[in-house]
Design a protein that fits this description.
Chain lengths: 431, 431
C-alpha cells in the first residue's frame, strides 16, 4: 500500500519506520529543509524527556539503544528553593527508573536516519497548502501536487492536515491556550564540566511561575522559563532581566553569563492543548487521518508529548494488525485511543500546577515519601500515578482507574486503622 | 468614526442601525447578493422565534412594531403524541406571553430596509477572503480591498473574521457538533386555511428524534426535523420516507403532500456550538471584534440565537456609552458578555433533551403545571427559567443564579412541609 505522511518530525519518522516494516511504500512530506546538514535550530523547543512509552516504541524497531546513548538519564527532580536549598525527589521508589533528556533536533536526526529505508522517500521543503479529502490530492507551497489514497497528518500542533478536516461539517475541534509563555535559556558548562548535577530534571518552583533545566550531552543545560505572558513582556530592559533573575533564581543567575542576550533573542512560545474528533475521514477510497500532536497536542508538563506520539505509532501498528492492513478500518479503530490521549492532556495541564507550586511544599514532599513507602511495601500492588505514566505502558485511562482504586483502598485502610486505634484506646481506658 | 461590519445578516444590520444612531459611518460587507429582489432562499434555515430580548433591542430603534406585524405569536407549545393526542403547554403562567414566529429572510429584509440610513453603506457580493488585523486591510473574493480601523465580524457561525482571529496565538476556540442534522419540510395551507392551530410552536417529541413546526403568515407551517444523521441518511427511497412518517408522525404525514420531494431536495443542516475567547484583538490603532453567532454560535433549541445576537447589539451600544465611543475600549468591555452567552449556549444544548424527550412525559407536564402555579401564587417572586429567558431581559447568567436560588427555597419549603406533616401525624397518633 502507498501511504503519504505529512510531517517528518519525530512521530512522522517513527511511523514511517513502522509502516515500512509492514511492507508499505511511504512518502514523507516535510515543510522544513533537511535538518541534518544545517544543524539544530536553537531557542525553538523544549528538551524532551523520553520515558518508558517512548522507549517501548523505539525498542520494537531496535532504535532504543541508539536514542538512549544520545540521552542523559534523569532519575529524579532537583528542586531549587529561593534560598539556594536543593531537594532531590526520586521519580521511582527504588530510584532505579529514569526519564531521559534529549534534544528534539538530535532525536529527529536519529529518526530521519532510521527512516532511510528502501520503502521510504522523504521530500523536504514541501509545505502542504491544500488537501482534498475526496480525491486525495495534496498541493504544496512550491506549486507541486501529489495524490494519495491514505494521508496521515503527523504535522504537529498546528497541523495543516487537521485544518482541512476541521473545515468539514461534523468535525469537533478545540484549541485552548494557557496564559503562560515559554522561553529557552542556557546554562553553559563551567570549566568544561556540568555546572549543576546532571542526573536530574531541575525545577525552580516559584508559585505562579517556574523554570526548569535539562542536561545536554555537551555539558550544558537547556533551561525553559514558564511564565505568565505579562511577566515575560515586563522584562524589557537588561536591568530588569538581571534584577528579576537575581531576586527569583539567584543560584541559576550565577550560571548564566549569556542570560540577557538569550532572553532578548529567543522567542516566546505558546502553550496550547488541541483536541479534534474524529481523527479520520474516509470518503470513497480516500482516507485522511491524524496522529501525534496533530491529533492531540498537549502541554509539556508531564513530559509525555513525544512519548504519547510514539505510543500512538505502536497503537496504529496494532490497529493495522487487527484489520489486516486496511488503513480505513485501522484509522477508524485507532479512534479508541482518544480515551487515553484525553487523560494525558488533562494530567499534563494539572501537572503544571504541581510543578510550579506544590513541589516546593513540605506537605507535598511528605506525600511523595509516603507514596514511595507504599510502593516499596506493596511492590507491584501500589504504584504512583507518575510511575505508571512514566515507567509503564499501562494505557493512560487505565492508569487513572488504577490510581482511583488505590486511593479508595488507602482511604479505607486509613479509616480502618483509625477505628482500630480508637477501639484500642477505649479498651485501654476501661482497664 | 468609520466602522466596518462584515455580514449584513440579522445582527450586522441591527448593529449598523445602533451605530448610525450614535453618528458613526458604517460600511456593511455581505457575501451574498441583495436578498430583496431575489426572494427567500428556501430549505436553508429554521424559522426564528423572536421573544423579549429581541423585541427589546428592536424597540430601542422603533422597529418592534413592524417586525411583530410580520410575525405570528405563539403563546405555547402544542405536543403531538404518537396516537394523535394534542397537549397545549402555555409558555407563561398567565398565558399572556408569546414568542413570535418569523422567517429569517423576511426579518432580514425588514432590517436591511431599516439600515438604509444616511450613515450606512451596504456592499453586497463582497465575500471576505483576507483580513490583516495589524493594518486593518480587508480583501474580498472579487479582488477588491478596503481598510478600516474598526472591523466587527457579524458574519455568523462560520465567520471569516473569526477564522483570522483563531489563527492568532493565544486565541482559544472550539466547535462542537451534535450527532444530529436538521432538514426543513412544509405543511401547506389546507383549503386556504392553517392546517393546524397557528397559535403554537408544534412539537412531535419522539425520544431520540423530534420534529417542530412554526406558523408562517401565508398560512403554511415550516417544519424542521432534528434527527440523528444516520436516521436522516437511512431514508434513501420515497417508500422509506413515507413509511417512517406514516409510522412516527401520522397526523403531520396527512398534511404534507410534498413530503417526499421536500425530503429529497432539501439539504441537511448541521448543529454546532462555537466558542471563541477573546472576541477582540487590538493591534496599534486597529481593533477587530466579533458579535452574534460569529462570537458564540449556539444550537437553536431555546429559540435564543437571534434574540441573543440582538441583545449583543444592545450591550455593545451600552459599552460604547460607557467608553465614550472608544471602540477598542468598548469591545474590550464587551467581553464581559461572555459570562451570559456561555450560559445560553449550555441551556440551548440542554433544552434539546427536554424538547425531544421530556415534554412528552406526564411527570414533566405535572412539573410545568406546578411551576406555573408557583408563578401565579408568587407573582414577581417566582419565575420559571423559560419565562426569565424568553420574557425578560434579565442577563442569562443572573437567570441561572435566580433559578438556583428558587430551587433551594422550594426544596427547603418542601422539607419544612414534610417535617410539619410528620409532626402532625405523630401528634395525631399519640392522641
Amino acid at each position: 500500500m502507498e501511504v503519504t505522511i505529512v510531517g517528518a518530525g519525530l512521530v512522522g519518522c517513527l511511523l514511517a519506520c513502522f509502516l515500512a516494516r509492514r511492507g508499505h511504500q511511504v512518502t514523507l512530506y516535510e515543510r522544513r529543509p533537511d535538518p541534518r546538514p544545517a544543524g539544530a535550530e536553537r531557542g525553538r523547543s523544549i528538551n524532551l524527556a523520553i520515558s518508558e512509552r517512548g522507549i517501548d516504541a523505539l525498542r520494537r524497531l531496535g532504535l532504543d539503544g541508539e536514542v538512549l546513548k544520545a540521552a542523559i538519564p534523569m532519575p529524579g527532580r532537583m528542586m531549587h528553593a529561593l534560598d539556594g536549598e536543593l531537594t532531590f525527589q526520586p521519580y521511582s521508589a527504588d530510584r532505579g527508573q529514569a526519564i531521559n533528556s534529549i534534544g528534539r533536533a538530535e532525536l529527529n536526526r536519529i529518526l530521519l536516519a532510521a527512516a532511510a529505508l528502501p520503502g521510504v522517500r522523504v521530500r523536504f521543503e514541501h509545505r502542504l497548502t491544500g488537501l482534498d479529502e475526496r480525491t486525495g490530492e495534496l498541493r504544496f507551497g512550491s506549486g507541486g501536487t501529489a495524490r494519495a489514497r491514505v494521508v496521515i497528518g503527523a504535522d504537529g500542533a498546528y497541523s495543516a492536515v487537521r485544518s482541512r478536516l476541521r473545515a468539514l461539517p461534523g468535525v469537533g475541534f478545540s484549541q485552548e491556550y494557557l496564559d503562560y509563555g515559554y522561553k529557552e535559556l542556557t546554562i553553559p558548562p563551567r570549566d568544561g564540566a556540568y555546572a549543576m548535577e546532571p542526573g536530574a530534571l531541575h525545577i525552580w518552583p516559584r508559585g505562579r511561575a517556574m523554570m526548569i533545566a535539562l542536561p545536554n550531552p555537551d555539558r550544558s543545560f537547556t533551561c525553559t522559563l514558564f511564565w505568565p505572558h505579562e511577566d515575560l513582556a515586563a522584562l524589557d530592559t537588561p536591568q530588569r532581566v538581571r534584577a528579576r533573575f537575581a531576586a527569583q533564581y539567584p543560584d541559576a543567575f550565577q550560571l548564566m553569563p549569556g542570560l540577557v542576550e538569550d532572553y532578548q533573542a529567543n522567542p516566546v512560545g505558546h502553550l496550547v492543548t488541541m483536541r479534534c474528533t474524529p481523527w479520520h475521514v474516509t470518503t470513497g477510497e480516500v482516507t485522511v487521518g491524524l496522529i501525534g500532536d496533530a491529533a492531540h497536542a498537549i502541554v509539556p508538563f508531564y513530559g509525555q508529548g513525544a512519548n504519547c506520539g510514539f505510543e500512538d505509532c505502536v497503537e496504529l501498528d496494532r490497529c493495522l494488525d487487527e484489520t489486516g492492513d486496511d488503513f480505513a478500518a485501522a484509522l477508524a479503530l485507532f479512534e479508541r485511543r482518544k480515551t487515553d490521549t484525553d487523560v494525558i492532556a488533562r494530567l499534563a495541564l494539572e501537572n503544571f500546577v504541581e510543578m510550579r507550586d506544590k513541589v516546593g511544599s513540605r506537605l507535598f514532599l511528605a506525600g511523595k515519601r509516603l507514596e514511595h513507602a507504599l510502593e516499596r511495601a506493596l511492590p507491584g500492588r501500589y504504584a504512583s500515578r507518575y510511575e505508571l505514566v512514566s515507567f509503564s505502558t499501562t494505557p493512560y485511562s487505565e492508569v487513572e482507574r488504577r490510581v482511583a482504586r488505590q486511593r479508595r483502598w488507602v482511604a479505607a485502610a486509613g479509616l480502618a486503622a483509625a477505628l482500630l486505634a480508637a477501639g484500642l484506646a477505649r479498651t485501654a481506658r476501661r482497664r
